[in-house]
Each structure stands twice: as structure tokens, then as C-alpha cells.
Amino acid sequence: VPISSLQAFPLPSLPRKQPTVLVVCGPAQNGAIGLVCARHLRIFDYEPTIFYPKRSPDPLYRDFTTQCEKMDIPFLSYLPTEVRHHVSPVPVPWWDAEAGSSGGISPDVLVSLSAPKECARRFLGRQHFVAGRFLPYDVQKKFELNPPEYPGTECVVALRAPR
Fold first, then answer.
1. Where does the record place the YjeF N-terminal domain (predicted)?
2. Which of 105, 119, 127, 95 is nearest to 9 (CA)?
3. Which domains does the chain have, with CATH numbers?
């Protein structure tokens, strides 16, 4: 994912009252995207903490991890029970993308990359965004995706307005 596709993070509609954000990273590309998002959040004066349980051995992803560490973004070795109902994750590694099983996680904000997955139908949080304007037309056609309209030059759009 080009870093420029993440330029809209954080969105103006995300509250600033609570600047702390937990970024939950999956392995491989999802992990890399989560790490890049955490860096962007830090630049915009949020206080991200990263939970990255299945780290990729790929040198690029290790570099992203190092960059976050050098920005003093803390990493958690486990997910505390008390935050399970107050998290705002980027890709959640243990969500079943088809069935929607969340493993006990109840995020407030969901960011779908490219297109909402089947599990997003069961998402009960406050806001749902999709980041995917960068998705090539042939991929959209192949998977019969119908992406939302992106206003102006935005690369992220809200699918569910704040409650």
C-alpha cells in the first residue's frame, strides 16, 4: 500500500478527547499497514500503542517496527482484558474475515482495507471506514467490488457516520 494512501489518517471525525489509540496488527501486509498507521497517528499527536502478536520476519516489516520504536511508540506483548472493549484497531489479526468471529474484541472504530470484509456486517462499533481508493480497476472488477465515492482527493471514506 503506498504510504500516500494513508494520508487521511487520522480522520477529522475521530475524537481528540481520548488521544490514545490501540493499533492491532496482523502478520504480513496487515501488520505493515498497521505500523504505518501508528506512525501517522503519532505525527498527528495521537498516542498509539501497538499490539503485534505475530511479527513478520520480512526485513521491510522489521524496518517499520524499528521506525515505530524510534518514535517511542510502545508495543504490548499481550492484550490486557480491560482494553478489549475500548480498542480502535486497524486490521485485527484474529477476526475471521468471513464469519465475523471477533475473538472477544469489540472495537470502536474499524478500518477496512480495500473493501469491507464479510465480518464487517457484524461490526457494532461507532465508526467504519474503508481505505481503498488505490485499488486498481481490474481488481475491483475481478472481485465484483463496488467501492464508495471518495470525496475530493481523500483516500479514506466513512461508511458509517459517528454515533
1. 1-163
2. 127
3. 18-89 (3.40.50.720), 106-162 (no CATH)
